[in-house]
Tyrosine specific protein phosphatases domain-containing protein
Amino acid sequence: MEFQNVCTWLVAIIATCASSVTVQVDTAVKRQPPGLKSPMKVWWAKELTPDFHIAGRLTERQIKYASEAGFRSILSLFMYETNDGGNFGGEYLPTTAEAWATAHMAGLQYVALIGGNDDWTSIDTIQRFHDVLPALRKPILLHCDRGYTITFVTLMHMANQTRHNSSFEPKIYSHNFYKITAAMGLDFTHDDMKEVVANVTGEPVVEKPPKHNCEPEEWRDFWLAHPISKNWYMGGQVRKCDVKILEQTGFKAIINMRLGVTHNGQPSQEPTALLNVKDEPTTYGNSTTPPRQDLKTLETNKINEHHSSDYISKKSRINYETENPLEFGDDIGYNEDAEEEVVLKTSLKYYHIPIPPNSTFTASMFSQIRDTLIQAGQLGPVMLHCSDGRRVAYFGVLAAAIHEGHDLNWALKRVQELGFEVSPDVQPDVYKMYCESFEQSHSFKNEEL
Ligand SMILES: *[C@@H]1O[C@H](CO)[C@@H](O)[C@H](O)[C@H]1NC(C)=O
Ligand SMILES: *[C@@H]1O[C@H](CO)[C@@H](O)[C@H](O)[C@H]1NC(C)=O
Ligand SMILES: *[C@@H]1O[C@H](CO)[C@@H](O)[C@H](O)[C@H]1NC(C)=O
Ligand SMILES: *[C@@H]1O[C@H](CO)[C@@H](O)[C@H](O)[C@H]1NC(C)=O
Ligand SMILES: *[C@@H]1O[C@H](CO)[C@@H](O)[C@H](O)[C@H]1NC(C)=O
């Protein structure tokens, strides 16, 4: 009797894991990993469609990063007047005139749509968006202050096209709008906004639209994060200025999965993002090539030969960057010690869980870090990061699933919604890790019973 029970259970598990799964995702299109050509530089952009990616208010460095990653224009929903330079954890946020100048230097088109006091939920704003679009080269990085209002306007434009233009893809109806925005951690369920959605789509007001479950609701003060579920967030490399903002936003812990200065006794600094330098996977040199941050190597890895040195700074005499202390880089590469030092000066708890980039993921890797992840998750909002979001997406979704009692299908859906497909054919190692980890967590629960 007992034997038979075990067998039925095993067959069920094998069936779930071996069948080729089709997951239904709540995104407009099948998302790609964030950041176009440079995930290290632009991991925080949220893809709505291949042409439209969402962000918050950008620093000058982020405008240049956007260009280097392959964006061709920037649309700022709001105009920022001369007296309206902003600040993000100590980093200066340019006015519209300054952002325009930086964008042009970087080879990007730049437009700002409405004044800071205009009504962003109005039909008129959606109309202006529609009117300016044909003039912009794609892909476009679309932004407002925290990636909220611009998402509304962009999706409302798409909904209007869906209604009035039969050749428009992807189709956005009311129910898509609410699912997509809930999956992004954005709440547009206020009655006034529901009216606008109904007006644009021509459909009835949706009575009980789905709503995200993010904690804290105001997580968008750190708009760069990608919400996974509840208190779990992920992304790529955070900057010095982000640490303070994370703390102010209510985060309790940072989990860093990048390699430290050494790993298993070997030097192991990962590459750091550098302006006008291609992302290269290696930091250290060999018998034929000097290290990545050696001037000779940097010269050969430049993205654009023709930039003036002003592209780096007024004081620079070369047109590429050699070090990036803002992202905890030193003269070799990314320096994890420097990040830890900054985080430890705040109330945030810091966990370092080094995972080599491009590891083959296994269930035993996860079981070694599982308890630490869950423990961190119990503190409150937690930000997992690596260089570009890939490692932490795989582990973060799995940890959140197990913490919150979700199943394999939930994890496969959520990880694809973040842009990282996991299936028997794509990332089969991660797929296997997921299957085995859910099995283990089931048998774990059964034992406890
Ligand atoms: C909606 O789309 C139609 C067809 O493209 C266009 O003529 C109209 O101006 C759009 N309305 C808004 C509010 O964008
Ligand atoms: C309809 O949509 C197609 C595809 O996006 C676009 O090329 C075309 O310009 C749109 N037509 C109007 C009238 O907006
Ligand atoms: C939709 O909004 C437009 C512009 O504000 C307005 O003229 C129109 O009456 C509204 N339509 C409905 C059905 O509410
Ligand atoms: C990891 O794999 C990707 C794609 O397979 C490759 O582009 C990248 O250079 C690799 N990174 C490292 C550090 O080996
Ligand atoms: C040295 O490093 C470069 C760049 O990473 C690589 O292309 C080359 O194959 C390496 N040479 C040797 C001898 O390992």
